[in-house]
């Protein structure tokens, strides 16, 4: 039976009266109300929270962090104990072209650049830090008292090495020497 005034059964009317008085709703009323609200589309059930995706995301973040630490602490090959990221000294190798070297064709220049690139890639594979650039010769202006240098500066490499002897070993392995060029080795001052 229903109460014609508000559409509630006498049992529902009593339960609402008890709620107004501060009593806890009976479990059946709460379940029935929720079922009706769901059926009417007035509420939606929350999807259960899944812990696995959060745990996997946290594990992935930890793995990336640990990998970053490992990369920062990896040692330079050769058993030096110096870290690749910080304690190795930095040196610059200035490559001066041979003063009597004939002009090269584009193909010869590409071959030479490839040779230097392969040399640098080999050093990197062994864990060395090396960067370099070939310099243009068409516009050069020298200033100061040493401006009359006889050989043009053709390029440079910046390397990391544990000490002066290690830097000299890298410089001696550079193919620039076999082509009659000169290499000037200078340590970069820590600032």
Summarize the SSE layout with pairings:
Layout: H1 10-20, H2 27-40, H3 51-73, E1 89-96, H4 106-125, E2 130-134, E3 153-161, H5 164-172, E4 182-187
Short description, anyone?
The protein has 191 residues and is of the alpha+beta class. It has helices spanning 10-20, 27-40, 51-73, 106-125, 164-172, and strands at residues 89-96, 130-134, 153-161, 182-187. The chain folds into two domains: 10-40, no CATH class; 49-136 and 150-191, Dimeric alpha+beta barrel (Alpha-Beta Plaits), CATH 3.30.70.1060.
Radius of gyration: 38 Å
Give the helix/strand class.
alpha+beta
3D shape: rod-shaped
Tally of domains: 2
Quote the distance from N terminus to C terminus. 91 Å
Q: Provide the β-strand percentage band.
A: 5-15%
The H/E string reads: HHHEHEEHE
Helix amount? 40-55%
CATH topology grouping of the largest domain: Alpha-Beta Plaits
| Gross CATH architecture of the largest domain | 2-Layer Sandwich
What's the mean pLDDT score? 74
Number of helices: 5
- Count the E strands: 4
Mind summarizing the main beta sheet? 4 strands, antiparallel
Strand order in the largest sheet:
2-3-1-4
CATH level 1 class label of the largest domain: Alpha Beta
